Amino acid sequence: MTYLPPGCTPPDPAELDNFWTHARQALPKANLPPHYSVRWIGLDDESTERVLDLIRAGDKTGTYTLPWIVEHTTHPMPAAGDVIILIDFGGHPRLIVRLTEIEQVAFGAVTATHTAVDGTPMRDLAVWKPLHTNYWNAMLAEHGLAVSDDMPVWVEKFELLN
Questions:
Q1: Is the pTM of this model over 0.85?
Q2: How many domains are there within the chain?
Q3: CB-CB contact of 160 with 85 (8 Å)
């Protein structure tokens, strides 16, 4: 199972497989691979629903991963072409995205160009940096790490498949 931050309900493997089977049948032209990964994007139930709505509307076209989290957890290293099932706070599959491009940037060098893939409410650096600092510090603390300007961040662009 893919790494999920504390708070998110782990998905039921049978529900994921059923969702994936139906998606592969419904999207034959998407050339979905046999394997997928699973992610939760958000802070809680409410924010997760808002993020999923932004993705569905085409407003949010990317996300971010910390290499430090990958190094210290079972979170997979992202690669262009990866197909991801996005789950809601309750662990239920909701959307499928495919990573199209990954760029590494230092946290202190994140610009509006990098935040442009986020949903409209998060694109302003004055909003994006404090929110992500708090979120990532909570995740990094258990590993004795903290957000810093030289911390690497992967900016992951994606396309919505369903």
A1: yes
A2: 1
A3: no
The answer to whether position 48 is within a domain reads: yes
DSSP 3-state of 77: coil
Residue 90 belongs to domain with CATH number: 3.10.400.10
What tokens were used for 131?
A: 């929110």
- Which pair of tokens denotes residue 151? 């911390």
- Bridge partners (DSSP) listed for residue 93: 87
Range of the domain at 44: 13-160
Residue in the block written with tokens 């690497």: 152
Q: In terms of Cα–Cα distance, which of 71, 78, 66, 73 is closest to 153? A: 66
Cβ partners under 8 Å of residue 157, min gap 6: 61, 62, 99, 100, 101, 102, 117
Q: Are 157 and 99 contacting, i.e. CB atoms less than 8 angstroms apart? A: yes
CA dist 28 and 25 (Å) reads: 6
pLDDT bucket at 150, cuts 50 / 70 / 90? very high
Judge whether 2 lies within some domain: no
Phi, psi dihedral angles at 149 (to 5 degrees): -60, -30
